[in-house]
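User: Hello, can you help with two protein structures?

Assistant: Certainly.
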Amino acid sequence: MSLLVASVETGSFSAAGRKLGMPLPTVSRKIADLEARLKTRLLVRSTRKLSLTDAGAAYVASCKHILELVDEAEAQASGEYSVPRGELTLSAPIVFGRLHVLPAVNDFLTDFSEINVRMLLTDRNVNLIDDHIDMAVRVGKLPDSTMMATAVGSIRRVVVASPAYLAAHGRPKTPGDLEKHMCVSFSVLAAGPTWTFWQGEESQGKSVRPNARLSVNTAEAAIDAAVAGVGLTNVLSYQVARHVREGKLKIVLQNYEPPPIPVHILHAGQGPLPLKMRRFLDFVAPRLRRGLANDEALAGRK
């Protein structure tokens, strides 16, 4: 079952073999033995990829559930529910994970010597069940789901510029003033970004397309350009907290910022939590709250 699931998830027998440390002929033979035992074809093999038959799709779904039960039984037998030990797999956004989550994880590892952490930094919203993730730090509004969420704070989208730029070109007072300013746009879209602003109790924001003197595809590059005085840029508050603290950037248009963006720690919430997850949640959540609160205090300076 593990070989079959790994083959489907990786897309080939050879990739499954590499993942599980098993020779390709062994993987192929064991899958063939499984199909012979079941007297049905589970996979359609081609030169490019594997695909599931209808019977295979139903069988793989059952395999995943069975393997999860086996993992839980082994975790209970090894003491994960009575002693905090084992491997914890964690997902977090790339920049937020590096700046906020990783320092907390480092401290956690010092205090809990029998727990190992496998940390996946990705801006993709992973599926905790399908990707075998124990816990995920998620930035953004959560969709309705069966996941359990612990709120750890919020972040803001802010417009910043260097003191030198503001001294030379003036401080924008309203979003409309951006037409007279040079901006650094950050977007992975070729069409470029729009910046959204709110005022008072508006039910929805208003979009402004900045006059982009420079367009880049990473927040770090946009921030570096803003520090260098190229123009104003629009990023998340935690990404510029250090630069604001050091006086390299100043926040403008604070009265027009969109509503704060929530940050949560998620887990599947099916049954009792292993102690490694409970200890991680109790240890890391307060640290993230303090870190985000400090960032927001800095981002609130005029």
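That covers the first. Now for the second protein you mentioned:
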Amino acid sequence: MSSALASHHNSALQTAATQALAHAKSQGATAAEVEVSVAIGQNVTVRLKEVETIEHNRDKALGVTVYVGHQRGNASTTDFSAAAIARTVDAAIAIAKYTAEDTFAGLADTHRFAVAPFADYDLHHPWQPTIEEAVLLCREMEESAFQVDQRIDNSEGATLSTYASDFIYANSAGFMGGYPTTRHSASVTMIASDENGMQRDYWYSVARAKNRLESAASIGQRAGQRTVSRLNAKRIATADMPVIFDATVSPGLIGAFVGAVSGASLYRKASFLLDSVGTEVFAKSISIYEDPFVLHGLASGPFDSEGVATTKRDIVKNGVLQGYFLSSYSARKLGLESTGNAGGNHNLIVSHDDISLEAMFKKMGRGLYVTETMGHGGNGVTGDYSLGAAGFWVEHGEIQYPVEELTIAGNLRDMFKGIVAIANDALPYGSKRVGSILIDKMSVAGE
């Protein structure tokens, strides 16, 4: 896996990118940019000890954007031959000639480009287990879950996925850069039954390197424990109450915030946080830091999808919004500068109160602990928030019993400012690292 991608990175990808840019210039494009990528992966799923699926992925793509003045056209291909690349560029130019002019479109400003040599954030750890090895790990996850409790009597399957990719981004302003990455994951979903019905739950782990994944036995055990704990769930009476969002679902709240302060929402005036820089949008105890340079980080990198250098920066400091998430296009629309976020946010690290989840239960005393949400979530324009939910009822600072068939509702503006505490249990499994969140009051609809 590693050698195959390395050879592409050092030769074929750069060659393809160079050919695309040269042909675009020869056909009259005033500017062009191209991304060339290759990826290979493997997915193995086992259910009740039997192999259900074995998938091998081998993908490659070249996407080119050309600019003819202020007109823009895009086209893509999976064929890296010179003739196919030329046809793809020609198609992009033909499209550009029929699009409306957009004075905000174009390459990123050259002074914002990252400069080679690019730092290595240890993102590439190839691992391609044999099918037999993958099956054994999946079986171990399932078996470990079954051993938790005899009421666990079925499985939706255990899956092991390994993935490696490489890319080159280049443009006619002279930028060319890329790097290989890997991403591996393991998960299992179990079903438990008793006289009151069935419940399901899961656990998972994601990492750049095999040795940073949680063990198969641990994943299975946690999946089993979570599943059994949901048996005999009840409904609770409708009321306003404190709510804790578990660390598996709390990144969704931060995701709603990111969406509200991202360029497309802002220039379309479709955000409840318009013109919020310099104002208090979270409780004063909350800070959010963006760090693209975390070693092994799942959202790390030296530049964004336009070649703009990434930087460490405060997004929220003591509750006050410090900046937006902007690409070059959205920045121009807003009269601002790119923040190096074309393609999305990098590793967001949310401050916490250095307390455990159990201590947070004590702090809340009585209320709802949410471990699963269902539905779309927030309205980006108004901030109104409503989701189906399941979890646990907490009384006297301790979990009492599981609950289900609930709807939680509020307004994100009030919810962000109503954060009482954040636990120290953040999971390093995505681009947003945030622990369990305690919010002072939400509307909970039950019986």
